Amino acid sequence: MADQNHAAVETVESLIDDELLTRIRSRAATHDRENTFPEDDLRELAEVGYLRMLVPVEHGGLGYGFARVAREQTRLATAAPATALAINMHLVWTGVATLLGKQGDHSLDWLLEEAAAGEVFAFGNSEAGNDLVLFGSRTRAVPTGDGGYGFTGRKIFTSLSPVWTRLGVFGLDDSDPEAPLLVHAFLDRGPGVETLDDWDTVGMRATQSRTTVLSEARAPASRVFRKLPAGPSADPLIFGIFAGFEILLAAVYTGIGQRAVELAVEAAHRRTSMKNGGRPLAHDPDIRWKVAEAGILQDGIPPQIQALATDVDEGVPHGAAWFPKLVGLKVRATENARLVVDQALRVSGGSSLANSSELGRLYRDVVAGMFHPSDGESAHATVATSLLGPVPEPGSE
Predict the structure, then answer these.
(1) How far apart are CA 191 and CA 212, in angstroms?
(2) CB atoms within 10 A of CB 220
(3) Neighbouring residues of 355: CB distance < 8 A, sequence distance ≥ 6
(4) 382-392 burial by CB neighbour count: b if 16+ within 10 A, else e?
(5) Which residues neighbour 374 within 8 Å (Cβ) at sequence distance 6 or greater?
(6) CA distances from 162 to 26, 35, 42, 185, 193 (A)
(7) Which of 37, 15, 69, 76 is nearest to 253 (CA)?
(8) Cα angle, residue 77 at apex, residues 74 and 81 outer, rounded to 5°
(9) What are the DSSP calls for 232-282, one per residue?
(10) DSSP state of 392
(11) Which residues contact 136 (CB under 8 A, 6 or more apart)?
């Protein structure tokens, strides 16, 4: 039965048909070269309902779960990794709102309705030097006296910068020094919100993840949806953000790996060897080993993504094991993709160094995977604590 179910899942038709995938792929090199946002990609994907995938049907969406959306994101990333990575941010927010709603928390139902109506949601959470991630903030959140807040700070890696219409942010309200709060809210574009034109990176250029400067940017009370004690939190919001981010991130980088294998196979058949009488390199045992190694590495990740995404969709109670599972998936997927791309480069030869090379672009894009939360250090610390327990305070042993 399990095999039959797996086969049924694999035959589900994608929202992105082959023609759309081809158009998106045809634009990716231009956006990378010109350092521009793929607005045509976003428009065409929105037209087929892509931005509404995780929105429940009753709110005007398609009602997909993370397992289905992860497969769609992997497929999109085979054509345009940066487009997929940017759209991840919107998908995570809609996924968070859906997960909260399943638990009876309807504080973000408005987000689902606005997403269904065409609003684009982005994350303004990352901050330079903030290794506490969601458990602390350098941004100040000052109460405005009417239930709203003014946010002042500097947010980095704001993907979708040219197109977002709603920006999720958080900051520290320390008006009560004895009980500081992390305040989560959404901002519209307007006074106090400045997007810098500072995105000029090695890879993932089309995400246009520019810096956002907040100067007393106002969020009304209706858009302040969480106030949590500073520090680690078991609030479902934190789990929802983390689960959606890690799973869909793994899906994007797995798409890079999938495309790299395809390009390696093409190169092995296309390239020939004078030493072996002009025969294709696909007949060379060393090249065959490299392609096989890439294939073996690649095949192990999609089932892991599907298994964990299905657990999120079904509300499987992993408890404290959730975070080690999620960070482990992210690290395996992103590091695995780098290894796959590396083998593909070795198969394809020096032509991959050309700026016009798709594989060369994948090589630059895949590097970004090491910088997303959770990074290697944080992930290993999480898993080590899960397996070994916390490190005792000095002198308490």
Answers:
(1) 12
(2) 15
(3) 33
(4) bbeebeeeeee
(5) 133, 246, 327, 330, 331, 382
(6) 21, 12, 11, 20, 13
(7) 76
(8) 145
(9) ----HHHHHHHHHHHHHHHHHHHHHHHHHHHHHHHHHHH-EETTTTTEEGG
(10) P
(11) 130, 172, 182, 230, 231
pLDDT of residue 396: 67
Q: Which two tokens stand for residue 315?
A: 């509300």
Nearest one of 157, 156, 212 to 188, comparing CA atoms:
212
pLDDT (0 to 100) of residue 273: 87
Dist CA 29 CA 143 (whole Å): 45
User: How far, in Å, CA of 239 to CA of 99, rounded?
Assistant: 9
The two tokens of residue 260 are 């790299």
pTM exceeds 0.90: yes
Nearest CA to 140 out of 128, 158, 154, 124 is that of 154
The pLDDT score that the predictor gives to residue 276 is 83
Question: How many other CB atoms are there within 10 angstroms of residue 20's CB atom?
Answer: 19
pLDDT of residue 6: 40
Task: Map 172-214 to HEC letters.
Answer: EECCCCCCCEEEEEEECCCCCEEECCCCCCCCCHHHCCEEEEE
Q: Which residues of the chain are modeled with pLDDT < 50?
A: 1-10
Domains contained in the chain, CATH given: 13-116 (1.10.540.10), 121-229 (2.40.110.10), 236-388 (1.20.140.10)
**For the chain, what's the residue count?**
397
Instruction: Name beta bridge partners: 228.
Output: 182
User: What does each C-alpha distance from 262 to 254, 255, 269, 351, 362 come to in angstroms?
Assistant: 13, 11, 11, 16, 12
The beta-strand segments (E) located in 108-179 are 121-124, 140-143, 149-158, 166-173
- CA dist 279 and 287 (Å) reads 12
Angstrom distance (rounded) from CA 184 to CA 228 = 8
Which DSSP state fits 363? H
Neighbour-count burial of 69, counting CB atoms closer than 10 A to its CB (0-12 exposed, 13-18 middle, 19+ buried): buried
Give phi and psi for 203, each to the nearest 5. -135, 175
Looking at residue 57, its pLDDT comes to: 98
Which residues have CB under 8 Å from 218's CB, separation 6+? Answer: 144, 148, 149, 150, 151, 187, 191, 192
What residue type is assigned to position 18 of the chain?
Answer: D
